[in-house]
Specification:
Elements: H1 2-21, E1 31-32, E2 38-39, H2 46-62, E3 74-75, E4 79-80, H3 82-94, H4 102-107, E5 113-115, E6 131-134, E7 145-151, E8 154-158, E9 165-169, H5 174-178, E10 179-184
Antiparallel strand pairs: 1-2, 3-4, 5-10, 6-7, 6-10, 7-8, 8-9
Domain NlpC/P60: 51-186
Signal peptide: 1-30
InterPro entries: NLP_P60_dom, Papain-like_cys_pep_sf, Peptidase_C40
């Protein structure tokens, strides 16, 4: 009987401490938005989920910075060409699979949705994660080189005259001058 009383007392005390400490309650604030407004854990918007996915996409791509451009190759840590790089990043980060051909990525209507390029401000309609297509000697229509828009005027790409995977500003570069088409993979 004494054992049961001690056990019951221990349970009641533990429950009281647990309840008073707040450990037994759901936290009131699970996160904050960029504007520091509180957001409940179950109230994340699809755009916040999208942002997390796109941040992961760019982070995964950045793991390959400096890896050499190698035609027709898709080997992390060893080499990629431009379209094998974009294809690998999407598959590795988000499980999204599509062709490793830059022409297919550009012209296949089943891959992504077109994004209008505003000639007066090419960054205006772009969003992080958009595939960017450039006119080059291989394809003036924008199927010769492809990279990933990383937001804030940056591109994540392999090759493009650099000979490796880079993350760099587009402003004032070949990338800014030769951008002709964009596609959104994550809506």
């Amino acid at each position: 009987m004494l054992r049961k009383t001690k056990l019951l007392t221990c349970i009641v005390v533990s429950a009281s401490v647990f309840s008073l400490s707040g450990l037994g309650q759901a936290p009131a604030l699970a996160a904050t938005t960029s504007s520091s407004k509180p957001v409940m854990a179950n109230q994340f918007t699809s755009s916040q989920t999208k942002e997390a996915k796109l941040n992961k996409l760019i982070s995964v791509g950045k793991t390959q910075l400096g890896v050499k451009w190698r035609h027709g190759t898709q080997k992390p840590g060893y080499g990629f060409d431009c379209s094998n790089f974009t294809s690998w990043v999407y598959k590795e980060a988000l499980g999204i699979k599509f062709s490793s051909s830059s022409r297919a990525q550009r012209y296949d209507k089943s891959i992504g949705t077109p994004v209008k390029i505003d000639k007066s401000n090419i960054y205006k309609n772009l969003q992080k994660g958009d595939l960017l297509f450039f006119a080059n000697s291989a394809d003036k229509g924008g199927g010769g080189h492809v990279g990933i828009y990383a937001g804030d005027g940056y591109i994540l790409q392999c090759g493009g005259g650099r000979g490796k995977v880079t993350f760099e500003k587009m402003k004032g570069t070949w990338f800014e001058k030769k951008l002709v088409y964009a596609k959104r993979i994550v809506n």
